[in-house]
Amino acid sequence: MENSEKFVPTWKIIVTFLLDLMTSFMVFGYIVGWLTGGLSAGGFQLNGLPALAVFALVVGYFVVFGKYGRGTIWQRILGARRRRQDASDRP
């Protein structure tokens, strides 16, 4: 059986994870800061429940887009999504 999927280097997976983490934290942090009044001159400052909400949104971003989507934003841009092997594909 041919393996038509190309190998994705580990460094590329790590870079996409870090870019996704920074991007999702900045976007969700700004949105939650705007909704809760946590915006400051230098960006946003969140404590307590708003900070927990941002953490939950970031985790949810990875779970939803990783499992149910075609990958996270940076995985799509950089083409760095690894597929799991099915049990039938293993030797």
Give structural notes.
The chain is mainly α and about 90 residues long. The chain has one domain. It has three helices and two strands. Strands 1-2 form a two-stranded antiparallel ribbon. The protein is elongated, with a radius of gyration of 17 Å.
Name some characteristics of this structure.
two-stranded antiparallel sheet; mainly alpha; elongated; 4% strand; 91 residues
Distance between the termini: 10 Å
Shape, principal axes of CA atoms: elongated
Helix content: 55-70%
Largest sheet: 2 strands, antiparallel
Tally of separate helices: 3
Which sequence of SSEs, written as H and E, runs from N to C? HEEHH
Radius of gyration: 17 Å
Structural class: mainly alpha
Instruction: Report the strand count.
Output: 2
Counted up, domains total 1
Mean pLDDT: 86
Strand arrangement, major sheet = 1-2
| Low-confidence region ranges | none
Portion of residues in beta strands equals under 5%
